[in-house]
Structure formats: structure tokens, C-alpha cells
Amino acid sequence: AFLGLLPSSRIIDQPLMSPCEMSESMESMECFMAKLAGKRVVLSGCGGGSDVLGTSVIYAQIKDVAKQVIFFSLTFTSDAILNKTCQKVSRKCWRVDPNNTAIASDPEEKVYFPEARMARVTGVPIYTLSHHATIQEYTEGYQAALQMELGQGGSVWRSIASALGLLDAKAPATALADVLVLCDGGCDVLLTGLETGLATPVEDMAHLKAVLPLDIPEKYITALGANVDCGHGVVQAELDRRLEVLYNSGSMIFRQPIKLEHAAGAYFAELVLRCSPVSSIVQSLVLAAMQGY
């Protein structure tokens, strides 16, 4: 299933609803995607590495209607490879282009670099944040990359323009983008930290905290294959309870299965198969479930 949620909301106590009741009372994924038409959308792999592949489910549905789509990923690829083969845009952020040389001569797919593989398949660059960075450096990476990509304002530009008399210092700042969506493979980003066990929460929570200060009006979280982490630290019953709480709080926007017969599902499946699926347990398990295993 693919879940779409707001990043934070007041949790309220209401009678719990069954999954069927939940699905009937939420908007569809397609309706949510339609609202992204004409907007500048940032799609980010949340937990690091191959999570960025999950953004393709959204990208397939908005690439022809969004004003612009910019990809980000919190990467597990080494800083050495990034420095050697990518354009550096901030202290810990690099632009990975479709023609990246790190995978050009790697027929056996020994180099772990899902961002470069996805950029090659989609033809779209991916801004990549080092997992060695601090939360502040993640935020700085977003700001630098979006200002470069969209050619508009941050605080430095505004200060210079104001000093030159080109801008009213009291004028509202221009948003870095219109919408940001963090896409997690699994469910750690949805949990509270008070559960019996977690899977790999550090990168998810660091990334979530890093994007909250960004001047982007709409921010959302999606989770692809939410129960993949069950058996890997997460308890299914606790995940179910958390999803019910998120629904009752009004945070859950949609909950929908992704199927191979759907265009977005087929796009995701093809992209994963072309991006070294052996390197991603999560995306391989999601794809296997779509194939009926």
C-alpha cells in the first residue's frame, strides 16, 4: 500500500475505524496527485539510498502536469564518489546527473549508487545529501540546490537585492518550491519512537527534521510498503495502531494499493528493475508483493 500523510497534526481521540472505512473516507491518490498540477514539486527519498526509487510512483503521475519536479535523496554512496563524479552545490549536497560516470563502466552493478541509476533511467538529475552530514547541512543542501535549480530567492539574494534598493526588505520571501513530499520505504518515519522496536529510524527522522524549516508551503510524507519493516524490528500490531491514530487525527490523506496493471505501478516496477534491485531489500519486497509473492 501507498500512504500519503501530512508531516504533523494534532492527535485526537476518536473511535477507531476499520481499514475499509478508512479507505472510503479518504480522498483517492489520484485526486491528491491532480492537486499537484502546475506546481513546483520536490520529491525526496526519505530514509536514504533506494528510498528515492519510491518517489517514482508519484513522479509517474505528475511528470506531465507539474510545473517542475526536483528530486532529492539522502544517500549512502560515499562522499568520495560524489566528489569525484558530481557537481557539489553545498557542503554536503551534490547534483547527480543522468550521465554520471560512476556507473558508466559497472556492468556487474557493484557500485552502490541508486541515485545515479535512477537519474540515468528518468533523465532527471537528483540532488544528493551525504548521510555523513548534520541536520543543518541537510537543510543547507536543500536551500542551495533549490535556489540553483529554480533560480530564485534565498536570504543571501534578498539581502543583496534589498541593500541595492531592488527589493522591499519587508516584502514576503518567495517560497523555495510549492510542495515537498518525503517518500519512505517502510514505516519508520510514521512511528513515534515509543514502540517496542524500530527498523532504521535515524535517517528518516533526521531528514524529516531537516525539511521542516524550509520555506515550502505544503509538506507531505508518503510510505511505500509500510509493513516491510515488520519482522525487522517493527511490530505489526503497533504499526496498525499508529496508522489508526494517524487516520483519526486527520493526518492520513490516502491509502491505496499499488498494482502492476496501474500506470504508476508499472512505471515503478520498470524503474526498480533497471536500478539494481538486488541492492534494495525494501524495493525488492514491494515489487515482489506487487507480483503476487
What is the percentage of strand-forming residues?
15-25%
Listing every helix as H and every strand as E from the N terminus to the C terminus, the arrangement reads EHHEHEHEEHEHHEHEHEHH
Give the low-pLDDT segments. Answer: 8-24, 153-162, 166-172
Output the number of helix runs: 11
Q: Summarize the main sheet.
A: 9 strands, mixed
The computed structural class is: alpha/beta
- The spatial strand order of the largest sheet comes to 4-5-6-3-2-7-8-1-9
* Helical residue percent band: 25-40%
Q: What is the rounded distance between the termini?
A: 15 Å
How many beta-strand runs? 9
The radius of gyration computed from the alpha-carbon positions, rounded to a whole number of angstroms, is 19 Å
Overall mean confidence score, pLDDT: 85
What is the 3D shape?
globular
